Amino acid sequence: MVGPGKVLLLENIRDLGSISAAGRAMGMSYKRAWSLVEEMNAAFRLPVVLPARGGAGGGGAAVTGAGLAVIAAYRGFEAAALEAGAGELAALRGMLADMSD
């Protein structure tokens, strides 16, 4: 339903006002970005992005209130998970090889 990539896409759409610009910022095609937006709009009860058709003034897209709530909930979950798993993450970091060479 949602993960770090989709949330970043939502944040980029929110900040850039465009699905194509958000996709470009992430190195993905408009078709892929649009496909992810469609998946999210279908997965949630309310749409998370409302696209506007192009025309004389150009197109664009807006993250809805539901989309903003998805971003906030995901980032809150992410912060809680990082806090809860801080010890395990430190242990994993301690097991990594030295990459300084």
Automatic annotation (TrEMBL):
Annotated signal sequence range: none
Superkingdom as given in the UniProt entry: Bacteria
Official protein name in the record: ModE family transcriptional regulator
Organism: Paragemmobacter aquarius
